[in-house]
Specification:
It is a single chain. By secondary structure, this protein is α+β, with helices and mostly antiparallel strands. It has one domain. It is built from three helices and two strands; from the N terminus they run E-E-H-H-H. This is DUF1330 domain-containing protein. It comes from Flexivirga endophytica.
Length: about 70
């Protein structure tokens, strides 16, 4: 899915393993930058990304999206 970001004016800024204090903590943190809300929306609606949802769900327990300033 990450290679699709460039098609939506986006990029991975950081991808880090998390030192987990508990099992509830994420294993990885990704900071992704997109040019604007329209870019984010088009990425989320991209049929190529949606087609990979089953594979992503099998590999990733949860995803949390936060907007940063």
């Amino acid at each position: 899915m990450l290679p699709l970001l460039a098609d939506h004016r986006g990029a991975v800024v950081a991808r880090e393993r998390v030192v987990r204090a508990s099992d509830a903590d994420p294993a990885e943190l990704q900071v992704i930058e997109l040019a604007d809300q329209d870019s984010f929306d088009s990425y989320m609606r991209d049929p190529r990304r949606i087609a990979l949802d089953d594979r992503r769900s099998a590999a990733i327990e949860r995803t949390q999206i936060l907007n940063l300033e």
